[in-house]
Amino acid sequence: MAAAMVAAPPPPTTSAGHVLALLDEDDDALKLHALQLLDASVQDFWFQIASSIGAIEALFEDEEFGHRQLAALVASKVFYHLGDLDDALSYALGAGPLFDVAGTSEYVQTILARCIDTYVEQRVAEAEGHGDAAAPDARLVAIVERLFARCFSDGQYEQAVGVALESRRLDQLEAAITRSADPVKTLKYALDVSQRLVVSRDFRNQVLRLVVNQYEKVAQPDFGAICQCMMVLDDADEVANILFRLLGGSEDEALLAYQIAFDLVDAELQAFMAKVNSRLDTLAPAPAAPAAAEGAAPAEGEQHMETDQPAEAAPAEEEASPFAKRLAVFKTVISGDVPTELERQFLARHNHADLQILKNIRASVEPRNSVCHSATVFANSVMHCGTTVDAFLRENLDWLKKATNWAKFGATAGLGVIHRGNVGKSRAIMAPYLPSAPGGSTPSPYSEGGALYALGLIHTSHGQGVRQFLLDSLRTTQHEVIQHGACLGLGVAALGTGDEEAFEDIKNVLYMDNAVAGEAAGLSLGLLCAGSGTEKAAELLAYAHETQHEKIIRGVAVSLALIQYGREEEAEGMIEQMTSELDPILRYGGMFVIGLAYCGTSNNAAIQKLLHFAVSDVSNDVRRAAVMNLGYVLASTPEQCPKIVSLLAESYNPHVRYGAAMAVGIACAGTGLREAVALLEPLIKDSVDFVQQGALIAMALVLVEQPEARVKPLRAHIDRLYGNKGAEVMTRMGAVMAAGILDCGGRNATIGLRSRSGHFRRTAVLGLTLFSQYWYWYPLSYCIALAVQPSALIGVDASLRAPKAFQVVSNCRASQFAYAAPVKVDDKKDKAKLPTAVLSTTARAKARAAKKSKDAAKDAGAGGEAAKEAGGAEAMETDKPAAAKVAEGEKKEGEEAAVEKKEPEPTSFTADNPARVAPAQRRFISFPEGQRYAPIRAAPSGFVVLRDTQPDAGEAEYLFEEEKPAAAPAAPSTDEAAPAAAPPAAGAGSGDEPPPPEPFEQPGSSLQAERTMSGTEWWRGVTDKGKTEIPGAEATELRSAQWQIERDAPEGVQQQLEQGDKEAEQVEAYRDKQDPDYHPSKEKEG
Amino acid sequence: MADLAAASTLLGQLQTAFSSGDLATCKQLLGRLKLEMTKMPALPPVYQQSANTQQQLELARQVLELAVLLAVRQCDEAAFERNYAQLRVYFSDARGMLPPSGQEGALTGLHLLRLLVANRIAEFHSELEVVPPEVQATPEVAQVVQLEQWLMEGAYNKVLAARASAASDYTRHFLDQLSSTVREEVASCSERAYESLSVADAASVLMLGGEAEVEAYAREHGWEVSGGRIAFHKRGDSADGGADGTAPPAVDLIGHCLNYAREIERIV
């Protein structure tokens, strides 16, 4: 029987009472025994032990008891089970070495987490210098140290890095990096995490310094990463040193230097690049060679890069200094010339903007409605941003004439958007509109101002070329509109350079206290000093208090935000001051200061502040701005933004709803995030017109360059809206603008706030900020061009030319990211609108062309010629023959119906250099092995420098070169009409792009004398005509100038608009009578 | 093994000392034995299986049984409670691993009695619930249960009478305490029941031996003894005011109710 009992399994323990009783014994050995037993069974009997916790605590307090730490451990566990983590932690600390940091139990994990939290809290408090913050408990430090030690011994270096960063332990961070098995990986991780998660800017910079130091110690340092760090730290000297070393190294190193240069330029920090450049000059051993090369660069523009490349390389070889040659090549990158040019070429050649969309919009928007009219001009500009295709404008000159005053200013600026990046020819393109144009009659200040602004937009971030010219223009004029344009142009072109001379000049304009010029001057000052956090901000703020003009106050308020871009904590003073202002406009600016200073940091304090103002401020403008700026703060974590603003999007206040829509648009720009779309969808159908407008624009920002399947509903909605006469004007304007943004850059670009390496592009963020000011001032909407980022993957070899023989594989179906199918021509609609809208011969020709192209579509076989006739511009804008395109379009339409019958599409396709890579497509990109060209770094977008693996395989073929002769004849045939008056640009042009607008015929017998006027002067001609022939026009101009200025009082604006429309109608009627050719019946014949 | 042998020897010594009444030696031996027991892996809550598991358990139980009895002898309440807590696991969890102990009934009875004496009635009942029926049937336990019933009924005289028929010395020790508990109960009842009481009556009610004892007892409780009568003071504690005839404040209550009704009316 005894044996049976022995074999019996141990009974379940139901109570710890007998063990607890041992605690009351006198003998310490018994207590120890009890504690040991309790320690082992605490997870089962904590509830019983809890009632005796006093006894255990007493044991811990008893100085004479030899096992106090064990008592502390037991107590800690009991408190943990009771949910009292603070006590649990303090007893765990008391347990000293008995607390096992290596344990995997939930208890240990929880306490450790608590421990680290507490430690981090104390360290941060200590670092931020809160007076009463004591040094962390030594025992706490000991535990954290042990934790580090364990991480190191277990190889969990990433965890160690995380804890070190959070607790601001640079020493441990360093240890983690040096001791890790793969320092490069750890460094990369540290870099990534510090960018995303470290809140304090100071500490982040310290981390970056450390990371850079460590990087340099690694056997094979990642110079790209180092240079990125240095750029964030604004250490131009070090970058220059590294690049200098690389350029002097092997061939591969030189290629790497080029790659780094491309990456750095991508971040668009003009001033920084200039510093690097000048530093390189001082380092260069033979300063003569680079100086010569540099001298040539700005003068010759892209010619130097394309055609003269071999020629230029020759003298360099004569000097037998490969280094000088490399340096010269390198400088073309770092000055931004080559990247800009390559991107422009890409955009120009791959342009897929659908002119039919614009035609439809133009046809359904009544031209007397100036708001929609200028929105259409805007849409055209953005759609063709950087493509240099101005076919639409040239086809619709008459229609364009309807833009007067500020609308004309905007339309001229739009040319700058279209020609963005065409740095070499900017002056030639804009020449006819510029103030000092030769042979100009009485120029309109609006087009002059617009042209100066346009120059700035063309030269965004590459302003050296036009800075002096703009400055001179600013000095020589006293006209407020021209000053306005010059200020904006200068600001955009010299963004972030902190140019002292320009600053003084613009400040003088500001102090003249003219509302129109002052507003632009304020903004311009902000752009010049963007992100500098300069002392001058206080001066500006003081002036904002002085002046009476709301426009100036607003300009200065926004400019203060631009100045504080990315300054984070340093901007706190300014934020404090501006948010407590009595003037709502300054508080409005204060919101932007918060948004931009903490741009992309997801800083909690900033978010809370913005949310506070979003719900509590008395001014609608401030509330709207507060919500909108959440978008900037959350830009680095777009998936968070819809969640945070979702409640605000349901606010009763339409301004808050508008702000929520824009916040999502800004934060999720180009991501196509589903949550964002879901949030915006109801807002698009909001009951308030401007909320719909904001939602449409935001939706376009989010969905730009997304797979067509996702964009389709939005396109359909836009189509319904702009032609809907019943819809509010504001809504229709939003729809038209959205249509433009959706197809920005000829469907080959996205709205990219971040560079390919993940840093925020200051230019883009500020561009979007200015864009959002369109609410008050339409011309600022053109600043969205600053945020347009070509979504190209361009491979370049050592000579910085794009070789043809380079391909990338996209591991997805080709149709997934294909261009949208061209819109079908709706003949009926066109016919219905045309007679009332367009009266000129051009229009008749167009109607013919439209009809013909429709015929062509029916008859795909003969389509080639017909299409070419239909739109010469269309043939030119793509590198594919037009016939093929038409046929393709036809095929696609057919496919839609019978897609199932087709055999499944292959799951991958190859794309030739330069490849269009939509943002969502990036993860599918791979580089096939065995090509002649191998990438230095396998980046899925942007510029990729290629290594020629078979340098002996003969001369490579390059893109963008042999196509030039093909492009030249593609110029419109009407060119012959007035060869003599052809603008200088057409003559000088190498033909690789469409020349500026060709001559056109002014309809009407009274204008016979102007028959052969140069097309580029159409604008001026229009103005003159208006002035001489229509006496009422002057008054119309004056009155309609007012409607654009302030949108604060919509009712008043509406009235003015209607009045303006009536007058325009009279003008129209008058002009119609003047046209002897005009007869309604003739329209039908045409 | 050696441990067990040494412990057995110690246990032998302890038993001898205990039966000879040498309490000091007992205490010292007990301390050593308990230390020995910490080294026995078979004891709860570890229950490590080995060849002599049962012996270890049995030895531990014997030690603790002695320890409890010793505590009673020493009149050491705390020690009793502590030791019994340690012992109890052998009567509950480890019960199945051991042959039944002869002392179980007596010790359980003592424990219950102690709870009763200390007026911890709730604990008494919950303890009683877990006592297995065969143990409840033992006379020691049955007697305690009977006592509890008398006490609840208020049959104090039976309780006091039980003292005379105490089963063992240990029980008598507790019963002494019980009678004083009962006397307290009676005294507090008397305070409420009588304005005053003659000393002779008091002696019989309180079951005290003589007038001298009554007077001493009265002094302890602060009663006035004059002219052969004890005058109970109405204690100032008006905690239960209803007992001394004051009617509930009916008028006030009615007033409040009406007031509430009016307020509710007004709100609606």
Automatic annotation (TrEMBL), chain A:
Example GO molecular function: enzyme regulator activity
Biological processes per GO annotation: proteasome-mediated ubiquitin-dependent protein catabolic process; regulation of protein catabolic process
UniProt domain 26S proteasome non-ATPase regulatory subunit 1/RPN2 N-terminal: residue ranges: 14-282
Annotated 26S proteasome regulatory subunit RPN2 C-terminal domain residues: 792-953
Entry keyword set: Proteasome, Repeat
GO cellular component: nucleus; proteasome regulatory particle, base subcomplex; proteasome storage granule
Highest taxon of source: Eukaryota
Keyword Repeat tagged: yes
Residue numbers spanned by region Disordered: 287-318, 849-917, 954-1086
Low complexity compositional bias, start-end: 287-300, 966-987
Residue spans of biased composition, Basic and acidic residues class: 877-905, 1059-1086
The keyword Methyltransferase is assigned to this record: no
Assembly and binders: Component of the 19S regulatory particle (RP/PA700) base subcomplex of the 26S proteasome. The 26S proteasome is composed of a core protease (CP), known as the 20S proteasome, capped at one or both ends by the 19S regulatory particle (RP/PA700).
Function: Acts as a regulatory subunit of the 26S proteasome which is involved in the ATP-dependent degradation of ubiquitinated proteins.
Family per similarity comment: Belongs to the proteasome subunit S1 family.
Full protein name: 26S proteasome non-ATPase regulatory subunit 1 homolog
From TrEMBL, chain B:
All copies of domain CSN8/PSMD8/EIF3K, residue ranges: 107-234
Any single GO CC term annotated in Swiss-Prot or TrEMBL for this entry: nucleus
Protein name: 26S proteasome non-ATPase regulatory subunit 8-like protein A
DNA damage recorded as keyword: no
Keywords: Proteasome
Lineage: Eukaryota, Viridiplantae, Chlorophyta, core chlorophytes, Trebouxiophyceae
Keyword GTP-binding annotated: no
GO BP field: proteasome-mediated ubiquitin-dependent protein catabolic process
Signal peptide (UniProt feature, chain positions): none
Protein family according to the UniProt entry: Belongs to the proteasome subunit S14 family.
